[in-house]
Amino acid sequence: MPETRNAYHASIRTFFRWYSQHSDTENPATSLGSVRRPTPPPRPAPDDAIKDAIIDISERTCLILLLAAEIGMRAAEIAQLHSNDLLQGSDGWGKVVIHGKGGRQRILPVPPGIMKMIKQQAPDGGYIFPGKLNGHLSAPWVGKLASRALPSIWTLHTLRHRFATTGYQQGGRDLIAVQKALGHESIETTKRYTASSLDLKAIVTTTIL
Description:
single chain; mainly alpha; hpI Integrase, Chain A; 2 domains; 3-stranded antiparallel sheet
């Protein structure tokens, strides 16, 4: 996939840039061409699909779906969620410290219902989703659990698209706020997650016939 090729391309360029700086040799990666990545439209999972998915699944999988759809967490962030990352508020709402890509952290509010579910998953503390990878589930397994529960065309990643889209439409169309909430380094990435609420019929008019 283009995104995977782009990630490999970036890793190679980063490695050889470091290598050339420490070996006094010319960087061979400077001659590499760019990777063309088509920009797909946002694919927010519809609420009906999510509601249908959580009817008959385990509480653990249900929580995984809600953390992605309503908090905007990535699979790796969900997998590593720990009780120490939770901050309890006085009104039932809480906050969660999310450990994102590149060691970057962000803090997001958590509704009372989801806070309750998180605590029920780990009543004695520790990782919310315990597993065999350093004590917690792996990110691929979290994604697989989500995909199994959702209708076939929807994935955990499309739940992040749902979070971005609803956050943009209901949060005053503040794209920068959505970017911060998702943990994106570039706002261009956020644009690929966020579907417009504009009714396209308003601009596709039939003025000729």
